[in-house]
Design a protein that fits this description.
By secondary structure, this protein is mainly α. The protein is 80% helix and 0% strand.
Length: 398
């Protein structure tokens, strides 16, 4: 099957389907991020291990990126998507069993499958660009990311209405409901239409050698800024629910904090693509990195509910501008036949680095406190800004 000429009608259709799938998959991630550290604290052998399940989730994301790319190249994007949704269903079923049996190891296994599902969901944004024209591509990416707005409302509300359904098994029913949502996602993803790359391209290794592509200055800048944006957001978000509980705030306040954080992560996607088209991805990334720094400043200023909420909202906004901008820049560094390999490698870098940082989040919180977690933001953000400035990318459209 030959790759089609970019048709924005098909791209728009795929973007809508994938936006719905993003909303459903986002509920999976939201449930884990909102409850993972709390459940971890209940099941873990010590408080320092409380965030390990969330870190294992990130490890699952890193592990999933390269296999997902291989499945997509060999069998098509839809096969990869359905594999991910199946992992999402397993997440809910295993997590429910782990909570009811009090097994920390089993719960960590569940979050690993959840990370694999999230890795697949991250490829939705690139899949939406596969059939899009150069003009529509940034908007296709941002439309899919906008599906996360629904996840930002749906995920926390799902938790709110199910967390106490089976006392004393807090959140057990939430994970069972999440498994049902993953089944619905499978039915939605079955409607995606993205042809396989040309067989000639697959047989020839999909274009240029990967090493040649990733040595491009634009790819280096895009990948590094994507890594920084996602890793810093995850570092702070992982600890936030547990930090709120340690500060005496309620589970309801914590759930709402994550809800507004996720809405802030995905809400700007309705116009991020337009901003990228008008001002260029590097300028949008620059704003994102500055917003991440602003989040750290607010978080260090106090520990009231308002401080947590405002800090997490700024954190979400910074992630959106930084990560969506970096994703758009990555698509500009490769030819169509090279995309699945390059995008999988990019995501492997992003989520592999996230895994390393995530495992330290709980350790930093337990040993040095919430302020120390936020102090970590500034050196990497400064590095990203310096790279954009040094390459001159922030002074001209991509």
């Amino acid at each position: 099957m030959h790759a089609p000429v970019a048709d924005d009608r098909l791209a728009r259709r795929n973007a809508v389907i994938l936006a719905v799938a993003q909303a459903l998959a986002g509920a999976n991630s939201t449930v884990v991020f909102a409850t993972g550290a709390i459940v971890g604290a209940q099941l873990a052998p010590s408080a320092a291990w409380a965030t390990v399940p969330v870190s294992v989730f990130v490890l699952g994301m890193a592990f999933g990126t390269l296999p997902v790319g291989a499945i997509a190249r060999r069998y098509g994007r839809r096969a990869a998507f359905l594999t991910g949704a199946t992992a999402g269903g397993l997440t809910g079923l295993i997590a429910c069993a782990a909570i009811m049996t009090g097994s920390f190891a089993l719960y960590s296994l569940a979050t690993f499958f959840g990370g694999f599902y999230a890795a697949v969901a991250q490829s939705y944004r690139f899949a939406a660009a596969d059939t899009a024209s150069d003009r529509f591509r940034p908007r296709a990416i941002s439309y899919v990311m906008a599906g996360g707005v629904v996840a930002g409302v749906f995920g926390p509300q799902l938790i709110q209405h199910t967390m106490n359904f089976w006392p004393p098994y807090l959140f057990a029913a939430s994970y069972l409901a999440q498994a049902a949502v993953a089944v619905i996602a499978m039915m939605v993803l079955a409607q995606v239409r993205i042809p396989l790359p040309p067989r000639a391209a697959i047989g020839a290794g999909g274009g240029r050698p990967l090493g040649e592509i990733v040595r491009q200055p634009k790819f280096i800048a895009a990948a590094l800024c994507g890594v920084i944006s996602y890793a810093l957001m995850n570092l702070v978000m992982t600890s936030a629910p547990l930090a709120m509980r340690m500060c005496g705030h309620s589970l309801e306040d914590s759930n709402l904090a994550i809800q507004w954080h996720v809405i802030a992560m995905y809400g700007p996607s309705f116009f991020t693509g337009t901003l990228i088209s008008r001002f260029g991805a590097p300028r949008v990334i620059t704003v994102g990195l500055l917003l991440l720094c602003a989040a750290g400043i607010v978080d260090m200023a106090g520990v009231s509910v308002a401080h947590f909420w405002i800090g997490l909202i700024l954190l979400g906004l910074g992630w959106n501008f930084g990560f969506v901008g970096a994703s758009a820049m990555v698509t500009e560094t490769c030819a169509p036949a090279e995309r699945t390999r390059v995008q999988a490698f990019n995501d492997f870098l992003v989520f592999g680095t996230m895994a390393l940082g995530s495992f330290s989040s709980g350790q930093i919180l337990a040993a040095a406190g919430w302020t120390a977690v936020n102090e970590v933001i500034f050196p990497p953000a400064a590095l990203g800004l310096a790279l954009l400035l040094w390459r001159g990318l922030a002074r001209r459209p991509a």
